[in-house]
């Protein structure tokens, strides 16, 4: 049995990988199979901030990979179970892909679930919960995602979602889902009333060629009224306010009729005929779809026998949806590079879902504009524990404030920060940035810049040593903070003085040699003219030679002392307040 279960989970995982189908047990780290042959997985891969109950942040999101433009079914489950011992089921908001889904009202002892069908606009499905009431902390028990065929529910607008209100199977006694429904829709048995008769089809194999692909098991049983004068009232579970609705009614004749029998049906809305007569066919699934209509809980929907029908109406299954408002396209795509920040800094990966939507549930460290396609206007990432190099987010052209103070950022200040057209405040204080400040930033008089407490950073326009940062990637990760000091200043600081020293000594020696040669020639001439009685040599020339030797020695000593002082002098200290657009403080 254990081996079978393991194989089942592996098969389910492979199927999920190929079809992006997944069943997530939120709060769990284990994988297992259930009675419907569904493989469940823990939530480790889908949320970084996973907890049983979410007590902080504006919203907490699960992210599930999908293919952009695919039609999906998403279900979310909530079971309170008095986990906190307060016997007070909480209420909170449920979101998907940046859209408000519903306000969840959990039950003390009942499982609550919600389902939506829609076409994805990105390659990620997000399911989020958000606290909306004081001391009512959101949670989520399970999430399921199923890929649907693109032709299914084809009368719906691809820019809107179908929100399930009711899905029932008439005449069955058990739930119909994954083992019978390839798309794992959950068909709940309808409660039989006294006016209904359960019909069982004589055909064991029902032909189903409908675009909505209802499971064949639905057409084995049906409800029918006892006579032609009694209609089937359809329970819709619609809200009290009028909303757009989408409805599928499924039917199939259960028996072979003789020439005297005829079953013909009509759909009535509030007692008025809303469709042409339709005749169920034996052994074949049929469907009628109702859309482009608004209704509420007071609206009546019924199936009645048409005037020429000799048999009462029947029904096999029913789906009722409300239609959402137009789905958002999400935060402006130019701000999608926020994910590059998340890729660079692991601490930011805890945030998922749409960065700005739905308002006001943006990520905690950004500000956004209003509107259907908002822009990010501020990054508040001070003291976030960021370590490494700043990635390129130059496409975020609506940024007005960037606060990155008190982190461990390294490398030079990126040039692109000076090209952001709306940037008004840039706080880089308290990091380990190096190099010079780009002129596009330092000369921007409209920018409030703070760069204090960056020991290796040089203010633009000053002469100073800079640290050379290894960005080749061969020496470690960006979070290591390692640096290689440039040896060029040391090499130049020693090579240039030695070269000058050699040049000076050579020059002095050349002067002395020239003077000695001149004096020797002069002395020889004097000796030849003055006779042997005159002393040999020239006292004045000897004094000049001694003076020249002393002068050369003093020059060499002074130069050596100057070189020693230059090499041992402390590095200059630069204050940021020399430029009027630089500010101190965090």
Automatic annotation (TrEMBL):
GO terms for cellular component: membrane. Residues 465-486, 567-586 are annotated as: Disordered. InterPro entries: Leu-rich_rpt_4, LRR_dom_sf, Malectin-like_Carb-bd_dom. This is Malectin-like domain-containing protein. The chain crosses the membrane at residues 488-512. Keywords: Leucine-rich repeat, Membrane, Receptor, Repeat, Signal, Transmembrane, Transmembrane helix. Pfam families: LRR_4 (PF12799), Malectin_like (PF12819). It is found in: Membrane. Residues 53-323 form the Malectin-like domain. It is a single-pass membrane protein. Residues 1-20 form the signal peptide. The keyword Oxidoreductase does not apply. Gene3D superfamilies: Ribonuclease Inhibitor.
């Amino acid at each position: 049995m254990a081996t079978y279960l393991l194989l089942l989970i592996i098969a389910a995982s492979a199927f999920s990988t190929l079809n992006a189908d997944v069943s997530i047990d939120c709060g769990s780290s284990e994988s297992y199979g259930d009675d419907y042959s569904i493989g469940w997985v823990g939530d480790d891969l889908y949320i970084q901030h996973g907890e049983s109950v979410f007590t902080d942040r504006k919203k907490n999101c699960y992210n599930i990979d999908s293919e952009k433009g695919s039609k999906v079914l998403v279900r979310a489950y909530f079971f309170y179970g008095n986990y906190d011992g307060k016997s007070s089921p909480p209420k909170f908001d449920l979101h998907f892909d940046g859209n408000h889904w519903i306000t969840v009202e959990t039950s003390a002892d009942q499982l609550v679930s919600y389902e939506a069908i829609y076409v994805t606009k990105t390659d990620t499905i997000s399911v989020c919960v958000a606290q909306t009431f004081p001391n009512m902390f959101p949670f989520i028990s399970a999430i399921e995602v199923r890929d649907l065929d693109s032709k299914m529910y084809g009368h719906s607008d691809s820019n809107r979602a179908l929100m399930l209100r009711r899905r029932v199977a008439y005449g069955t006694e058990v739930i119909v889902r994954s083992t019978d429904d390839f798309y794992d829709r959950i068909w709940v048995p309808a409660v039989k009333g006294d006016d209904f008769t359960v019909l069982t089809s004589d055909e064991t194999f029902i032909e189903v060629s409908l675009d909505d692909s209802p499971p064949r098991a639905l057409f084995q049983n049906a409800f029918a009224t006892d006579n032609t004068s009694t209609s089937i009232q359809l329970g819709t579970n619609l809200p009290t306010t009028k909303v757009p609705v989408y409805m599928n009614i499924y039917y199939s004749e259960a028996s072979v009729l003789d020439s005297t029998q005829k079953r013909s049906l009509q759909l009535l809305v509030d007692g008025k005929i809303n469709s042409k007569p339709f005749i169920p066919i034996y052994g074949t699934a049929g469907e009628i779809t109702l859309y482009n209509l608004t209704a509420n809980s007071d609206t009546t929907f019924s199936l009645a026998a048409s005037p020429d029908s000799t048999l009462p109406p029947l029904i096999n299954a029913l789906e009722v949806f409300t239609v959402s408002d137009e789905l958002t396209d999400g935060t402006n795509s130019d701000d999608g590079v926020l994910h590059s920040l998340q890729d660079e800094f692991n601490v930011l990966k805890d945030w998922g879902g749409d960065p700005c939507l739905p308002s006001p549930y943006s990520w905690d460290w950004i500000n956004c504009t209003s509107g259907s396609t908002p822009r990010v206007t501020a990054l508040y990432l001070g003291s976030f524990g960021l370590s490494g190099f700043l990635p390129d987010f130059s496409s975020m052209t609506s940024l007005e404030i960037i606060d990155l103070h008190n982190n461990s950022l390294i490398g030079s200040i990126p040039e692109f920060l000076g090209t952001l057209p709306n940037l008004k405040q840039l706080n880089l204080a308290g990091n380990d940035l190096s190099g010079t400040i780009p002129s596009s930033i330092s000369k921007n008089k409209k920018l409030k810049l703070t760069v204090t407490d960056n020991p290796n950073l040089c203010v633009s326009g000053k002469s100073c040593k800079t640290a050379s940062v290894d960005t080749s990637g061969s020496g470690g990760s960006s979070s290591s903070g390692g640096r290689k000091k440039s040896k060029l200043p040391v090499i130049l600081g020693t090579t240039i003085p030695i070269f000058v020293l050699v040049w000076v000594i050579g020059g002095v020696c050349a002067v002395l040699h020239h003077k000695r040669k001149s004096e020797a020639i002069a002395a020889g001439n004097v000796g030849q003219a003055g006779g042997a009685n005159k002393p040999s040599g020239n006292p004045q020339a000897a004094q000049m030679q001694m003076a020249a030797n002393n002068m050369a020695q003093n020059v060499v000593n002074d130069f050596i002392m100057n070189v020693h002082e230059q090499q041992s002098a402390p590095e200059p200290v630069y204050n940021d307040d020399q430029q009027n657009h630089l500010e101190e403080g965090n």
